[in-house]
Amino acid sequence: MISVEQSLRSLLVEGTRNGSLGPGSKLPTERALVERLSAPRSAVRRALEVLERDGMVVRHVGRGTYLTDAAVEAVRAAPADTSPAEIMQVRLVLEPPVAALAARVATQADLDRITQCLERGGASDEFEAFEMWDGRLHRAIAEAAHNGLLMNMFDVMNASRQLPVWGSLKRRTSSPERRRCYHAEHTAVVEALRDRDPEGAQVAMRRHLENVADNLLGRH
Amino acid sequence: MISVEQSLRSLLVEGTRNGSLGPGSKLPTERALVERLSAPRSAVRRALEVLERDGMVVRHVGRGTYLTDAAVEAVRAAPADTSPAEIMQVRLVLEPPVAALAARVATQADLDRITQCLERGGASDEFEAFEMWDGRLHRAIAEAAHNGLLMNMFDVMNASRQLPVWGSLKRRTSSPERRRCYHAEHTAVVEALRDRDPEGAQVAMRRHLENVADNLLGRH
DNA sequence: GACTCGAACCAATTGAAACCAATCCCAACT
DNA sequence: AGTTGGGATTGGTTTCAATTGGTTCGAGTC
Predict the structure, then answer these.
(1) Measured between alpha carbons, how far is residue A119 from residues A186, A194, A195, A208 in Å?
(2) Which of B190, B183, B179, B181 is nearest to B114 (CA)?
(3) What is the CB neighbour count within 10 angstroms for residue B159?
(4) CA distance B220 to B83
(5) Segment B134-159, tens digit of pLDDT
(6) pLDDT tens digit string along B10-19?
(7) Fold type of domain A4-77
């Protein structure tokens, strides 16, 4: 898991990047940040103390917390890390062929594991649980390709999915209806795998990921 | 019977691999690990002491136990005995779509760099020089896709190409004639990139890599 | 007898809520 | 129009219970 200070910092970075936060602008109250980051106020305050000590932010009782010029300057100088768009681009490149490969070489045990992830995900009504089984399903499919190097690369990709921006984006765009849709798409992929249909698995996976990308990043 | 320490270690490895554990992340409390591993707390504590002594983990009273950077680094550097077959499989999955992507978004500067690598490779008669420019060419094409995460994964892939087995295999199967053939295939890829032809670039790259795989691994 | 296991206990830290004081907001009043 | 008063908001503080790694101790096992 990621520390509260890191999530707060990335919140500021995101805000200044998309222009919703500028120098001198007021950022959410401590109590609002508590809800937004789902962290205890003590942790939020500790993070804010660090930011204040670094001169990124000034705080006044009764007024609020304000961004300094130094903060936006620091953000401008910072390198941009991988964006959700980049991640989805990579997933669209990598995962469909991997699904095709898995359809060829998966063992029955692989398929059992995959099916289990699919069913658990389908039985998950809540965001957190669904996300967990979604991640495990995609990883199980990659595992079924039986290529260690591929798994290494998959994990590099998933490491980027742990970035705070990704989590907030997922949470913002998720809904029960979309989760049901994803589950249906997952089912199509898994059925193609069970049918040993590489082309079908590849197409189904591409369709699923294109849908995810559309939902996350907005239709283009 | 496997020791508690081993199961704990594999728990950490699994967690860092699938991204649920990163540097600095908090791992379950001792009491939670007791349930999860169904081992007595004394055994869990003994295992944690070893991990702490190895610098994999830090512990604080009242706070919890936290993963160190060294731990995830150790996992990342884990023995990746990847076979040339696996590498070529991954290259065939990854590089053709990347070439298509590059054809869409490459800048003129990207194309200039790519062209330079192509020409230097074509002018190299010796194995070593050709291999260097070959590697740079493929990397320059990946760079032209302008996706940082993609480059990360590309580097993971290339790290496996540093293994001794790979080098000797290349040396054994290389010949002036094959190098000329590769150069012609490279030229086809780069021309498609210059024509902004994604499909052509993808096809040319796939044909090239299939040829490389055949030469390295023997025709199947 | 040496060791392990389980439980209780200890001390450091966190978490949640209540409370405080500075500030803001706005309506009522002169 | 300007003033003023009170309530709402907001960063700061206190308080107390819960959590968590560390320790101790007696029962059980070999």
Answers:
(1) 10, 14, 18, 17
(2) B190
(3) 15
(4) 17
(5) 887 888 899 899 887 888 787 677 66
(6) 888 888 877 7
(7) Arc Repressor Mutant, subunit A (1.10.10)
Q: Which residue has the tokens 């990579």?
A: A90
- Sole residue written with tokens 């896709």: B145
Query: What number is the ipTM of this complex?
Result: 0.54
Domain residue spans of chain A: 4-77, 84-217
A92 conformational bin, left if phi > 0, alpha if psi -120 to 50, beta if neither: alpha
Q: What are residue B112's phi and psi, to 5 degrees?
A: -65, -45
Q: The tokens 């500790």 sit on which residue?
A: A46
CA distance B104 to B192: 11
As given in the structure block, the two tokens for residue A2 are 């990621």
DSSP A78: S
**What are the C-alpha distances in Å from A145 to residues A11, A107, A151, A193, A197?**
37, 9, 9, 11, 14
Cβ atoms B171, B127 nearer than 8 A: yes
Fold match flag (A4-77 vs A84-217): no
Rg, chain B, Cα only: 23
Neighbours of B99 (CB within 10 A): 29
d(CA B78, CA B156): 12
- The two structure tokens encoding residue B24: 């600095």
pLDDT tens-digit profile of B166-217?
A: 667 777 787 888 888 999 999 999 999 999 999 999 999 999 999 999 988 8
Distances (CA, A) of A137 to A99, A113, A120, A210, B83: 11, 8, 10, 17, 26
In this structure, CATH architecture of domain B4-76: Orthogonal Bundle (1.10)
Q: Which bases of strand C have any atom within 7 Å of the beta carbon of a protein residue? A: 4-7, 11-17, 21-24
What phi and psi, each to the nearest 5 degrees, are found at residue A64? 140, -170
Chain B residues touching A1 at Cβ < 8 A: 22, 25-26
Q: Which chain B residues in 45-74 sit with Cβ < 7 A of strand C?
A: 60-63
Amino acid B68 reads T
Using only C-alpha atoms, chain A has a radius of gyration, in whole angstroms, of 21
> Could you confirm whether domain B84-217 is CATH 2.40.370.10?
no
All residues of chain B having their beta carbon less than 8 Å from the beta carbon of residue A205 are none
Q: Using CA of residue A170, residue A173, residue A177, residue A183, what is the dihedral sign? A: negative
Integer Cα distance of B23 and B96 in angstroms: 33
Distance from CA of B85 to the nearest CA of A (A): 9
Three-state DSSP at B53 gives helix
User: Is the torsion defined by CA of B130, B135, B139, B142 positive or negative?
Assistant: positive
